[in-house]
Amino acid sequence: MTGTLLGIEGLTKAYPGVVANDDVSFDIREGEVHALLGENGAGKSTLVKMIYGLVKPDSGHMTLRGEPYAPAEPRAARASGVAMVFQHFSLFDALSVAENIALGMENPPKQRDLARRIRDVSETYGLPLDPARTVGGLSAGERQRVEIVRCLLQEPRLFIMDEPTSVLTPQEVEILFQTLRKLKAEGTSILYISHKLEEIRALCDHATILRLGKKVATCTPSEKSARELAEMMVGASFETPAKAPRELGDVVLKVEGLSLPSPMEFGTSLKDISFEVRAGEVLGLGGVAGNGQDELLAALSGELPGAAGAVTLKGEPVGEMGPDARRMRGLLSGPEERLGHAAAPDMSLTENALMTAKMREGLVRGGFLDWGKARTFAEKVIERFDVRTPGPENAARSLSGGNLQKFVIGREVLQRPEVLVVNQPTWGVDAAAAAAIRQALLDLAAGGAAIIVISQDLDELMEVSDRFGALNGGRMSEIRPVDGLSVDQIGLMMGGAHDMEVAHVAG
Amino acid sequence: MRLEKRPQPSRLWTAVTPVLAVLLTMLVGGIMFALLDTPPLEAIRTIFWDPVFGEFAFYYRGQLLVKAGPLILIAIGLSLGFRAGIWNIGAEGQYIMGAICGAAVGLAFYPMEARWMIFPLMVLAGGLGGWAWAMIPAVLKVRFGTNEILVSLMLVYVAEAFLASVSQGLLKNPEGMGFPGSRNLQQYPSAANHELIAGTGMHWGVVAALIAVIFAYVLLARHLQGFNIRLTGEAPRAARFAGVQPARIIVFCLGTAGALAGMAGLFEVAGPAGQITIDFNSGYGFTAIIVAFLGRLHPVGILLAGLLMALTYIGGEAAQSTLGLPGASIQLLQGMLLFFLLATDVFTNYRIRIGQGARA
User: Fold this and answer.
1) On the CB side of B291, how many CA atoms lie within 13 Å of its CA?
2) Considering only CB atoms, which chain A residues are within 8 Å of B357?
3) Tens-place pLDDT, residues B241-285
4) Do the chains contact at A347 and B231, CB–CB below 8 Å?
5) What is the CATH number of the domain that holds A471?
6) ipTM of this predicted complex?
7) Can you give the residue range of the structural domain that contains A103?
8) pTM listed for this prediction
9) What are phi and psi of A399, to 5 degrees?
10) Residues A28, A72: contact at Cβ < 8 Å?
């Protein structure tokens, strides 16, 4: 099994203003797990979209088992035996598992036959799945299983997975890896996209590294250290944020018996959450996506007010207050979704700065706005956080993800918060910007602020936090000091393998 | 050829699209007139040029302000809601209710002579009437999450029925020989909304419209409330994060729009119309929606759009009488104006790329 399955030669794709892929060539062999490694914006997604027929290359060509391969649309790619699981699932919440799978098939069999086939495949590959369940009630890991089973039913020769582990607990990751190894043993090739280096070292036979649209190297990841891979990926060594030793002060924020129904359908209600944070401390809250992170942020920011006593700030109950009243008292926050939640996409950076800084920075006098001061504050954020933009009059949506994230985090940090709550502060941000954001959070804590970092990136949480807790089904796990915490323990705190009591892989 | 999203809205196109829309309307309107066997250039001139610069302009110019005043006043109120994503389609109803309430106050004092008190009270009552009518969709939306488009629109028909009822009953002129309709307020000096400067068409409603333009401009550009309105329209979730309470914005926007529409109704009934009649309302509340969008929801834009729209009304009437154009063709022309505006609006946020995958 050493033949080439998919040959990629000189693929180039340019978008206005950016060359997403520049003359990329590499081969995927039969029966191997091939990693595609790179930072956000390195061109991984574009490359995969070309393989899957979603995007047409400007030049270059591909071969599949020696035959020319140029899929005009995903249907053609699927017909050639290429299947893909996207990072963002395309499932309908209100439909059952079997109905969702049928929707993605060319000629769906009868529901009863399909249900039987789903059971067969899920048992063979150790992916327990009940075809009759409604997708809305499934966890992220289970939804991913739906997508995987949908692909496996097509018996693909090349199976593409885009960042599959970002929604899984460590235990679930292990189960997924067993499935992938079994597929590999059966001769299926897997193209595995990730920026998590340890995973790639554990799973993949070869890795192709992309940087700024160009192929940097193809290597055998098990022979390289994670550090070496990271440097190839980023193209330079960068500083890992440093935790300065610091004194913990008094309890600043106390959450007690916080229960809130989710305002969204299929959202997660918060159930009896209690914890406290001290001045100078970073509390890391992990958990698989959709386990109450958004709701917890909203409950702390004031978007979802609840019982007065549920949230106490420096001894004062603030649970009933709205966002502005909490900001005045020093409780600031940064939500996960940059565009549309943390920032208004079509408004200028000055206006976006005004959005949350109006009270603490004195940008409003007697109801009237002080645009000059707002602009100065926006410029300060841009300068201090190295936001790449021509100026504060530009619309938020014109910034790249990393730059906008630096802006919205910087906007809160520069308001000297006493408590700062951030959700996914470095999601979709390049490594250098992520390091800068984490450093800013650590500096803020060193200055005596209490920080709560909600994140799905365990590495990030281990890097910045003093104590760690996890959200699972809207409940908070026990909160433990990070030092001496093992991956297994973390996984169990996150809920272990969700609903996978017996996940044995046959063969 | 394909459309590509701009990184940010183009300032140039924001300003150019209304002009382009007017030109396209003239062009396609001209073709339409030609198909109706009317000389197109003459028709366009009669509609867009003669009322301001033609032989009888001295008469038409006054009419211009009379028509533009209520349109601008109503559109300013509507634009605040539209900016926040609150779609008040029922200004016509609020206009009617304002007129009825204001006129009722005036008629209640008849024949007392105390203009210093009666006329301001009427304006107040007009505003309150429109405000109260707009509060119905506002409260229903806040309390029960109803759709304000449907509720406000349906209330127009309720208001029309109410108008028919009072003009034959409660407010009927006791000396009107049994004809439906109220006393003529023009003939009651304490309540009349006369022309302030003879021949200009300038009455208190026009003054109110100009004040509303300035008020809205300052609100949107300088005041926190205006910023919150814009933020709510641009990104509702971000607005809530910023501490904006959606209910307050809904009540404020619908309330202001209702009050302004109500006042417009009062100024009309006490001025140009003179009396409450069954068919007193003439569609200003609906046309104002077009005016608001034609003016890009910007106060100064609305001022200009109101004048332009008034022009098409007056010019359209002139064209009907002198050239014999059907009334429907004028309505078509006005509809075209909005259509082309929305169509060209695409270029504010998108640009055209010709050819595949142009490299940058």
Assistant:
1) 33
2) 13-15, 58
3) 999 999 999 999 999 999 999 999 999 999 898 899 998 888 899
4) yes
5) 3.40.50.300
6) 0.84
7) 4-234
8) 0.81
9) -85, 150
10) no
